[in-house]
Structure formats: C-alpha cells, structure tokens
Amino acid sequence: MKFFNIAGISLTLSLAASAATFAQDTFKFAMIDPFSGPAAIVAERINKVLTHSVAEVNANGGLNGVPIEILTFDNKLSAQETVIQAQKAIDAGARILQTSVSSSNTFALIDFVKKYNRRNPDSKVIVFDGASHDPATTGEKCDYYGFSWVLNANMKTKGLASFLATQDDIKSVYLMNAEGSSGQTTRARILEMVGETRPDIKYVGDETHPLQKVTDFAPYIAKIRASGADAVITSDWGADLALLLKAAGEANLEIKWFTYFSTGPGAPTSIRQAGMENLVYSVFDGDTGIQDESLIAYEKAFAESNKFSASSFPGDVTAIRALSAAAKVAGSNETDKLVAALEGIGTKTIYGADAYMRKDDHQIIASMSVSSFGPIPEGALDEEGTGWGWTTQAIIPAADITLDSTCKMKRP
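Above: the chain's sequence. Below: its structure in token form.
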C-alpha cells in the first residue's frame, strides 16, 4: 500500500488497512535497521536484546494482556529505504517503529511519521529512537509521538568532558569521527565541552573518514602515532570502531582511547586481542559498576544464547521496560494514551539506575558512567567471551549532564 498517490483514495486505504491490522492479537513493534551490509551485526544484536526484553514483558502478561511481537525490516542503512520500510511496517500492523543505526535514518523516520500521523489521525504510530545518539532527535526534530531512549551526544560528551578534567596525563588529543550528522555533531560538542573543562588540551589531529566503508585503518593509526597524541576521542561505532581498535593493537599503539560505543560488536574482542588493558574507555547510560541482582539475573539469562551482554544496548532494555510500565498506567494500548503515559514515566535502566522520560522533549534522563575495559573479578560480567569486562572509573549524576531542552514540540 502507498499513500502518496491520489489523496482521497490513499487516505481511505490507509485508514482501512490500519484499522484491520491494529485489531490483531499482538502488539507489533517494528525494527527498521540495516539487516544487511557491514552494519548488519549491530542490527542483529539489537534485535536479540529487544527479543529478550520483550520475552520478559510477555511472560508477565504483555501490554494489558496483549503480547508484543517484533517485526524486522531492512533499511540497508539508507534514509530513503527507511521510509519505504516504515510504510511496509505500518501495513503489517506495527504500532511502534524503531530505528537505532544512523541518525539520518532516525530523522527520515521521524519526518515520515509526522506526515503519516497527520494524514491518519485514527491510526497513529509511535517512533522509538533506540541508539541514534544525535541530539537533534529530541531537539529540532522532536515530535510528540517520538521518544529517545539513549543519552544523546551532548549529554555523554558533557560527562566525558567532566571526566577528562581529572585526567592530568592527557595533554594532546587526536579526534577521529565519521562523516554524517552524528559523527560531526559529536566532534563539535567535544571541541566545545572539552574546551570548557580542559582548555589546555592541544588537538594534534582532527580526522573525518567515510562511514562504514573503511576496511583498513592502518593509515589512520600511522597518522595518530606520528601526531604524538596522548589519547584519541572517537564517536566511531560498529565495524568502524572494531577495525580501528584492531589496527591500533596490531601497531602496538599504547595510548588511551575515549569512545562512545566500545560495547558494540567486535570492539571488546579487538581490545582484548590487542592486550589494550584499561586503555579503552567508554561512556555508558547508567553505572556499569552497580552489578545488582536484577542485572546479574538478566544478563545470565541473556548469556544462555548470546556471547555479548544485553547492557551493550541499554536503551532498548529501558524502552521496553518503560513501554510496559506506561501500558499499565494507561490501562490501554491505544497510541495517544500510551504516549501520554510515556511522558514523564519513571523506570530503571538495565544497570538498576533510576531514569525518567522528560516531558519537554521526550529525552530519557539518567546518570552515566565512564568505564575502562580490562581484567575483571571472577564472576563479573564479561564481553564477547573475552574474560574482560568494564570497570567503572567515574559516575556522573544525571543532574550534571542534563541540558536545557531546545525542543519546540507541537502537541495534539
């Protein structure tokens, strides 16, 4: 079904199809992510985390007695394809559409849903941002029917800047970020926020590389070594980050790395194989050191069929838990009632930390931590079967990274 044809006919068809699909006996949750190509492993892991979280909710009655069903759609890491797959997801009866990989895809989905909801007021859908990281999602792109479940780049960079203020050994930094909105937004915030807490730091390199296209990062590592940098700050993710760290290890480049996504596929393995003990730091949504009973139980159950930790994608766990709580508050699975209940909802992150959905812009608010990767105590959670895990180096309270909202939300 397409609704970009003749206005009157398309509206009628869309309403009729949605009325039929929305009456089905499961609550359909659509993942629209790159299930093919170099970023596919990221989408596949997010799917596994969502599936585990949904199973937990379904075992306790689902959403008001209705089980959640996950549908997957391949957007091929393309904004245009994201829109095509979003329409297919709605045709299949999806009530919530989530995309997590690449902010350009998130923006495309938000814009599409804004138009769709205006044209189909009786069959509105909700957008979940699982991990796009770009502050524009809850800034200029904010929407009443959209929710972001991860701390954005501005929040994480503010926390990282606070941590770097305590790292007197870091005198010079090399910046490494990918092309595209997310990478370049993060780069700008690093220069701004780290500049405020550590104005003495010298930037000896500022590299921008193609997104998810580089297969050999050795030339980049050679530049970093030649620069004499004490540390690298990078917002790279997925295959880019795994290959970057692999190249650093092969070159025996023993400097510190401050990252945003080192829990992602392949990165922990690359770090362990390179023997980069406590040289790689990552910023987390929540406190990796809590290790409470609920986290241990959750991760042990997840580990029975997976070789990575569910906490690699904390936003997805938070999203499903909050959705379940909101459905109970609303006493209904109807879109507008769910949205109203999600606004301001309090929940727990996978780490057991308190979090809430800010009503002003639908941005999740929580504490964060900076952790390093290396040997861990016996029985602690490891990553990718490496025997190494994350050790908390600093906890930054939510109040210290919560920034004023720039959202100008249009409410129904």
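The first strand starts at residue 27 and ends at 33.
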